Fold these 2 entries.
Entry 1:
Amino acid sequence: MTEYKQLTPVEHELMEILWKIKEGTVHDVMNLLPNDRHLAYTSVSTILRIMQQKKVLTIKKSGRTHIYQPLLSKENHASHSIRKILKQVFSGNSVNLVAHLVNEEKLSHDELNKIQALIDAKKKELPK
């Protein structure tokens, strides 16, 4: 995909389901919505068609049934979203982004150790 399309909150919600199940019909998506999330069949169908028009989903037809599959990977979406947040919120400063996460989130010792291990591994990859 050459051009990234930003997802609305409800599009993201439906994409999370499709990323999890790999492909599905409107009914499949609706069955995996939280019990307290009340979206009409026509609403979900319309949103999925809009996402297909945005080229973040593809449609495979099986008889009269439409099966939706993500074209946008979760990783690609995450990368674009983080870059957007980094640029818009932290003026492109990665240190400020990481500092915010470390200082503002309630991280456990295990999480901090995993973050430190990622940093240590990344340092080893860099030329000396």
Note: The chain has a mean pLDDT of 93.
Entry 2:
Amino acid sequence: MITLNFSKSEMACRCGSGIYEMDDEFMRMLQELSNEMNGPLRFTSARKCDCHNDAVSSAKNEKNGVHTLGQASDILIFGERAMLLFEKARQMGFIGIGLSQRGDHAKRFVHLDTKPRKAFWSY
């Protein structure tokens, strides 16, 4: 386990490389957010190896992106619960927040990161 609620396999790159290392401060904040949400958080992605990030990232030209640094996660969530997560994450200091809330509910997510810049966007 990386934290009380998040396992290495849960945070690992989806390509199967086994890379799971996450930034300690990011994980502390994510654990605190999980506690505040009073329920499990499910991820579509967290840590990404460089090769996997190059293959799937919408920020193709960004080397050392936040996912490759272990400072980001995409949380599978939608509707009112997504808005609650957004507000709590903003209050807790997550400074990169992206919303993908269109299409199939099973594919809607909120991206959170701690890259040193303030940003909000939608996909």
Note: The chain has four helices and five strands.
